[in-house]
Amino acid sequence: MNTPLVSVIMPAYNAEKYIERAIESVLLQTDITYELIIIIDGANDNTIALLNQYKDNDAITIIQNERNIGVAASRNKGIAMAKGTYIAFLDTDDWWTADKLKKQVELIQEKHCVLTYTAREIFDDSGRPTGNIIPVREEISYEALVKHNIINCSSVLMETAVAREFYMEHDDSHEDYLMWLKVLKKYKIAYGINEPLLKYRLSTNGKSRNKLKSAKMTYKVHRYLGTNPVKSFMYMSSQLAQAGLKYLKI
Q1: Angle (CA) 218 224 230, round 5°
Q2: pLDDT tens for residues 175-201?
Q3: Which pLDDT does position 62 carry in this prediction?
Q4: Residue 132: helix, strand or coil by DSSP?
Q5: pTM
Q6: Which contacts (CB < 8 Å, 24+ apart) does range 46-52 have?
């Protein structure tokens, strides 16, 4: 296979219910060379058997962890072995429109930035549309992101070299949000596409379902950044309020 432009990183934990739709959405990407790196981080279900159908696809690499190491460390494995100029993250319960990567590559090259993101359309656990779309602003700074995280992990495309500067850590927090903040603290601005190129599933065990737990994880993000407890609590409260408004109609 020729060197891919984009490396797609997909951690998988007991993912038999959703993973095929996620994979197929990668395989449908248009006008982009890509590789898909799937990291199996525990499978007590039929995930491994389902993935056998893709074993002869040269664009797909499947890795199985010896033990469960968590989503951050699993994504980091993919980042370390990525061959592409850019990295995109996709969780197994989400999927993309066919032009998602193409549009983001065009934007990241046009803006000469290091990270891009998109809006998302919300689906229920069964994959039915809820009728809700969560929009994004077309650019965001560190100062704005620290107050409200608008960047969903499955929507991100970023430079591989930058991902390797700021590997994910601290699974007890929002490890992806922590990464975006570290990136923007150095690189200042990220750019968004206000189109729902990401199809986001409200899965039963998703973080967004438990607002209190999510708020506590947000607090930990800011503490890991070195923010004092009072300010961290203020940021957590702000994001909890924003999350309540965002999902009010869902």
Answers
A1: 65
A2: 999 999 999 999 999 999 999 999 999
A3: 96
A4: strand
A5: 0.93
A6: 46/16, 47/12, 47/14, 47/15, 47/16, 47/19, 50/16, 50/19, 50/20, 51/19
